[in-house]
Amino acid sequence: MDSQSTEIGYGAHTLQVSVEDLCQDLDPLLVQRKGRLILLATENADPQALTWICRDYYGSRSFDAIPTLLHSLSQAYRDHAELGSRVLLLAVQRGLDVYMVGSAEAVVRLARYNVVRDLFDPLASQRGFRVALTEHPGTGQIPALYSTVWRVVKGDLMLLTHRSAADRISAGTLARVARQTRSAGAAARSLGRTGRAGPDVPLMVIRYAQISPVPEVPEPARSEIEPAPVVKPRTRREGASPVLVAGLIALVAVLVSVWATGTRIDLAALPGYLEMYFFPEPTPTAGLTPVVTEIEDSEQFLVYAPPELVTPYHGARIKGAQVALVWEWMAELGPDERFEVLLQPPGGEPEARTMTRERQHVVSFGAEGWYSWTVRLVDIADSASPIALSPRAEQVSFHWSAAED
Predict the structure, then answer these.
(1) Counting beta carbons within 10 angstroms of the beta carbon of residue 20, is it exposed (0 to 12), middle (13 to 18) or buried (19 or more)?
(2) N- or C-end of the chain: fewer Cβ atoms within 10 A?
(3) b/e for 385-405, b at 16 or more Cβ within 10 A?
(4) 321 CB contacts (<8 Å, ≥6 apart)?
(5) CB-CB neighbours of 165 under 10 Å
(6) Which residue blocks in 236-370 are alpha helix, DSSP H?
(7) Residues 149, 91: Cα–Cα separation, whole Å
(8) 324-362 tens-digit pLDDT
């Protein structure tokens, strides 16, 4: 992913710095291979300490992001005790993956469509939430650090801030700002006012607009002294064609045979004899006769992999009058192809099925409880009995309540 695909907005008291500012002699190819380093730091953080973090990460021979980030941040905390409250988190954007290492005071939340979840919150488990974090115990002056990895998709918005500001920003507010603001800077300013981020509270917003996981490599310039391709001149055959000679010999042989046997032939039929002589009909041979077997079982038509369910994710808790079921499918649909959305409501109610060509389906005003949903691809050429073209995606369960935050 290039830098144009990632838009970063900064809060009022957040250090606005890039890896090019910290390490001005950094090789762009090295940044492309090891990923782009992002620092969540206050504006009064020591610039020399941040430069050391940048050089330590990119100077390491290891391309394993998490161990390298752990080393850079832990050594910076050890040598600069004040950084514990000024540099809360290091993140690396490499392709579609975001690697994060930070302290217990850092919080990272993701807004994807109308769903908000915690990606980085070491204290979330105390409030009954599940966050996939790995704890790295501290030693001496080095506090405990935490790490995680997350894969982004187009349209994701990440909030990175201090815990004090994150506690004032509700999930509904973050989802609303993600929908209504067009730039990461505007989102950061709006969330900064809501979270009342003070001088010691950094706040960043990262919006992923156009994902391009494969970098475009320019075509190498041709050398001015590169020799032109050698074009061999086409040679022409001299003399008579061997086909003409063979035809004349065959004609003479036919005439001699007719004269020797005394056979009388019709001159009008002579072209037919010549055609039969030069282009004889092939002798028919026995072959296999194809047998068409009618396929009755619809599972025989499974030609696609199942769609990938995006949101709601498994175990999500959603509050609101509507919930959007969103999935991903990279290919284009054929004229008779549709997505079949299967939603199982709570309380033993019958399964709801919906056909659509969109990549999402919005459900309104459902009963409170646990729902299960999945999607598959079907062919509706015969509307009376659609044929499944893909298996069902792995079923996902989520809890839905109509009450707002």
Answers:
(1) middle
(2) C
(3) ebbbbbeebeebebebeeeee
(4) 364, 365, 402, 404
(5) 21
(6) 242-261, 270-278
(7) 9
(8) 899 988 888 888 889 999 999 988 888 888 899 999 998
| Residue 139 CA, distance from chain mean position | 38
Question: Could you give the number of structural domains in the chain?
Answer: 2
CA–CA separation, 105 and 164 (whole Å):
8
In the predicted structure, residue 270 carries a pLDDT above the cut 90 = no
What is the mean predicted confidence (pLDDT) over 133-154? 86
What are the residue ranges of helices labelled H in 26-170? 28-34, 47-59, 65-79, 163-166
The distance in angstroms from the start CA to the end CA of the chain is: 35
Please give the backbone phi and psi of residue 20, each rounded to the nearest 5 degrees, phi first: -70, -30
CATH number, domain containing residue 112: 3.60.40.10
Q: Which amino acid does the sequence have at 86?
A: R
Are 200 and 320 part of one and the same domain?
Answer: no
- In this prediction, residue 405 carries a pLDDT of 47
- In a domain, residue 31? The reply is yes
Strands (E), 329-392: 337-344, 352-356, 360-364, 369-379, 387-388
Per residue in 302-316, pLDDT tens?
A: 677 889 898 888 888
* Domain assignment present for 384: yes
CATH of residue 318's domain is: 2.60.40.10
Tokens of 341: 């959305």
DSSP one-letter string for 175-218: HHHHHH-SSHHHHHHHHHHHHT--TT--EEEEEE-S---SPPPP
Give the C-alpha distances (Å, rounded to integers) separating 287 from 82, 283, 284, 306: 86, 12, 9, 40
Does residue 241 lie within any of the structural domains? no
Kind of pairing between the strands at 157-162 and 145-151:
unpaired
| Burial tier of 163 (Cβ tally within 10 Å: 0-12, 13-18, 19+) | middle
> What is the predicted pLDDT for the residue at 88?
92
Q: Phi and psi for 119 in degrees, rounded to 5?
A: -95, -35
Asked if residue 85 is part of any domain, the answer here is yes
Report pLDDT for 319.
84
